Amino acid sequence: MSGPVILPQELCGIICQDPALDNADLHNLCFVSHNFRAEAERLLYTSVRLRDTRRIKSYCLSVARRPYLALRTKSLTLRLPPQLNLEADDLARIVTALRLSVNLKELNVLKDFYHGPIGKYGDAVQWWILDGHKFKLRKFTNSYFQPQMLVGFLKSQPGITTLVLKCKDLAEICDAPLPLLTTLDCSAGVVQEFSMPSWHPRKIKRLQFHLEDSTDVEELATFVALTQFSSSLKSLSIRRRSSRHGLDLAVLTACVASQLPDIKYLRIVDNSTRQLETYHVPFLPFPIRLNKIETLILRTPTRACDTTGRDLKISAYLELRTPLGRMSAARRIFTALSTLKRLVLVEKVGYEFTRNPETGAITLQELGHLPEDDWMHSTNKV
Q1: What average pLDDT does this structure show over 1-12?
Q2: Which DSSP symbol is given to 282?
Q3: How far from chain centre, in Å, is Cα 332?
Q4: How many whole angstroms separate alpha carbon 353 and alpha carbon 39?
Q5: Can you point out the beta strands (E) in the chain?
Q6: Are 371 and 344 a contacting pair, CB within 8 Å?
Q7: Nearest-angstrom CA–CA distance, 304 and 275
Q8: CA–CA separation, 151 vs 161, rounded Å?
Q9: pTM of the entire structure?
Q10: Tens digits of per-residue pLDDT, 231-243?
Q11: What phi and psi, each to the nearest 5 degrees, are found at residue 356?
């Protein structure tokens, strides 16, 4: 051969898009040739995920030297250390990178719990680094800043359709109109805030809210607030943790049905432990009025098997501990819900029951993994 073989850029692009390659592989391909570098950088900078100050600083310096890289970025995730670990120069570099990322559509600003002392979500106050930029977001996630300090920023982003707020209680952001918001992931307190009829009207189609150490009174207040979303909401996910004094799962499901009888997707994940309690009654023993439900996903609370308090992931419902019992429960639920197409009972693994629309036969398969954001995409065609 008289010289090195130069692959055309189209072929380099096909190679770089091989799903077997990770970001480290793409980074190495940048040093192979100019064509490989162009394609690898395009993929690396389209969706950027950064953790720790050193990597964030390196990224910011790269886009400052080559601004065209920032133009490629559509999604940016920053896992920031505690604000005391960031110097003024670090913040200035982040501001520069955000200013250059004019095509950014998704921004996730998260607290990095792996660096520094463990604290609550959303305790940083340096909100000003987000202000005054030209990007127009469709999705914004925050677990870093105090949410009430983001009202001005959210007002400047009327195109947001998906908002994720990781805070335990209230967010105090109701002054932000968010006219296009359709997908919301938040605390139960935010659901109650957003349901106030005196604030901006909300047309939320997909909602996930979190309950932690909640009581039955607090849970009922949240379910009453859901009434304000009954005309638009199609997908609901509830995640409950450490709620030993909350509503029974069957009662909780019935409360949702009474407020939102026309939803198509319902997921309730109860990560509570009921100590030595065992429920001998059938699971969901009474009919629940969900008129249009297509997907129902339920994770029942577990119980500790012995006096040590260890949670061995055994369902608190006796019926759901055996294959025969789970099938019996599935048949009862499918009979009660005529529109139901898919039922998932999550125990140590996920048991997915589906109904044949022609024969009515119910089939079962085990699920290795249930996507966390399944609720976000279940009704995209609605």
Answers
A1: 54
A2: P
A3: 30
A4: 43
A5: 47-51, 75-80, 106-111, 139-142, 162-165, 183-187, 206-212, 235-241, 265-270, 295-299, 302-304, 311-315, 342-346, 350-355, 362-367
A6: no
A7: 5
A8: 16
A9: 0.86
A10: 999 999 999 987 7
A11: -70, 120
